[in-house]
Amino acid sequence: MRVVLLLLFILAAKVQAADPHSFSNFALVSHPQLTLDLTADFDKQQLSGFVELQLDWHHPDVRELILDSRDLSIEKVMGQSAEGRWVKLSHRLGEVSSTHGQALRIEFPAQFPKVRIYYHTSPQASGLQWLTKEQTSEKQQPFMYSQSQSIHARSWIPLQDTPAVRLNYQARIHTPKQLLAVMGADNSANTDKDGDYFFRMPQAIPSYLIALAIGDLEFKAMSERTGVYAEKVWLDKAVAEFSDTEQMMQVVSAMYGDYPWGRYDLLILPASFPFGGMENPRLSFITPTVIAGDKSLVSLIAHELAHSWSGNLVTNGSWHELWLNEGFTSYVENRIMEQVYGAERALLERQLSVQDLENDLDQLEPEDTLLVSDYTGRDPDEAFTQVPYIKGMLFLQFLEQRFGRKTFDEFLKNYFQSFAFQSMDTEKFLRFMRKTLLNDPDTVSMGEVLEWIYQPGLASTFVAPVSDAFKQVDLQLASWQKSGQLSDLATKSWSIHHWLHFIGQLAATVDMAQLRQLDQGFALSQSQNAEVAAAWFKVALAKNYSEAQPALEQFLIRVGRRKFVVPLYQQLSQNQQTLSWAKAVYQKARPGYHPLTQSAVDKVLKLN
Ligand code: BES
Ligand code: ZN
User: Fold this and answer.
1) From the CA of 561, how far away is ligand 1's center (Å)?
2) N or C: lower Cβ tally within 10 Å for the chain?
3) What one-character DSSP code corresponds to residue 282?
4) Is the pTM of this model over 0.70?
5) Choosing from 145, 389, 545, 569, which is the catalytic residue?
6) DSSP symbols for 286-300
7) What's the pLDDT tens digit per position in 209-237?
C-alpha cells in the first residue's frame, strides 16, 4: 500500500513539477540552502572542493537524492545524520546524455538534514571558461568565469539544476593571490585581494543564476548602488558608457516597484564571453563589445537590468517558457530606452528587432515559432531565438496598446509583486491575466491572446512599428543607387540605428561594386561598432565582397560572442572556398572561444 502511495505521489509530483531538462527529483526532496567551498586552480583549469546541501524531504518514504551533473569527478559523498554524525554515502552516476549531462544518485539510510559532495570540475566544463593571461585584455593574469544559463550550473556544481526551484547560498572561494573573485551575490567593493573570498546570497534564486568570476579586476563606482568591475583597460571606458545605469534603475522602480536586490553592478568580461549579457543577480555579466564609445548599444544594460524583475524575481519554471523571462524583459528594456533616451530611439530599436525576428521566422520550423515551444530532448540553449524575445515583446506591446499604458503598467506591477521569488508558467500567467486584466472581450479577447501564445509566426493582431527615419534612409538608399553619388546618403546625421537599418537593406538591393564604393567611402569593414561590423560582414559575405575578409578575420579572432560569430561561420561554410578560409581562421580563433561557442562552431564547420 505504502509503495503504491509513494508511486502515486511521485507521479503527481512529476506532473505538477516537470522539467525535462533536469534529472533531479526536486518534488520529493529539495535543497533550499547551499554552501560552496571551492579552490580555483588555473594550471589545471579546475575548481575543486565541496558543496553542502541542506535537505528538505517532502515525502516520508523517500531515501534517494537525485542531482544534475555534467563532466564532474565526484570524489566522495558524506551525509550528516539528524544526530550530527557524518557518514559516507553511496552514490552513482547515471548514463551520459550529450545535452543533459548525468544524474548523480545518492542513497541515504535515513532522511538526513545535510549532504556534502566533494568533487572537481573538468577543464572542458560547459559552464566555465578558463582564459590564459594572453587571452585577457591586460595580458598580466589569467581569468575565469561561469555562465550557468541554461543548464550549465551542473558542470561546476552538482545540484538540482532547474528553474522550477530556488535556493540561497553562501560561498568561500580560494584563488591565487592578486586575483579578485566576484559572485552574483554580496560583493563588497573594498575587499582585500588576499585570495580568500566569502559571499552570501540571501535572496532565493534559481540555479542558473549562480555566477562566479575570477580575474585581475578593479572596481569603480558609478553611483551609491551601481558600479563596474573590469580589467583596468576597460574600467573608465565602461564607467562612461554605462553612466545612465542609476537612472535606468529609477525608471523601472517607478513603473514596477522597488529594485529588490540591493546593489546593481556590472562585470565587464573578456571579448570571448559568448553572450551580450547575462543577468546574474546584483552583478550582470557584460560583453566589452557593447562599449562603443557613444552609448549606442546600452539597450543591453537596460535589458539585463530589466531581468531583475522579469526573470530573476519572477522566473520561467522551465526552458519551454523562456518567453516569460526574455519577452517580458525585452518589453521592459524598450520602456527603459524610451524613458531615458526618448520615444524615437525606442521606436527605431523596436523596428530593428522586428526585422531580426522576421529573419528568424523565415528560418525556423513553424513549431519553434510559438511562444511556448517544446524543447524536450533538445539542448535548451536552442530556445535562444528571436521568438521568445521579440515575439514575446510584441505580444506585451499589443496588450499595452489595447489596454492603455496605465492599466497595463498596473497589471505588470501587480504581476511582479504577486509572484515575486516564484517560478511561473504560461498557464499560470493566463489565469492571472484572466483574473486581473481580461474583463472585457471587446478590448482583448482570450482568442486573440491564445493566438499570440500558441499559434506559429506573428499574430493577425500584430501592428508593425514604422518610423519615418527609416523611410528616409530607404529613400536615400534608392537615390544613391540611381545616381551613384555617396553624397545622396545623409550619413552625418545617422545614428547607429540608421546604419543598422541601412546595412540590413543592402543584401537584397546592391552588387559588389556598390559595396566596394560604400566601404571606400565609410570604412565599414573597419567599424569599431561590433553590431555594425557584424551586419556589414554578413552582407559582404552574401555578395562575395572578399576585400572585407582581412577585417573579418580580425573580428572573428577578437570577438567570441555567439550571436555574431556562429552566423558568420554558417555563411562562410556555404561555399568551398570560404569554408577552407573559415577553417584556417577558426584554427587561430578557437582557443580563445568559450566551450559553448567552440561546440557550436565545430558543428557548423563539421569538425566533430
Ligand atoms: N539571459 C540572456 C542570455 C541567455 C539566454 C543565456 C539563454 C543562455 C540562454 C540575456 O539576458 C540576454 O538575453 N542576452 C542577450 C542580449 C539582449 C540585449 C538581447 C544577448 O546575449 O545577446
Ligand atoms: Zn535576456
Assistant:
1) 11
2) N
3) T
4) yes
5) 389
6) E-GGG--SSSTTTHH
7) 999 999 999 999 999 999 999 999 999 99
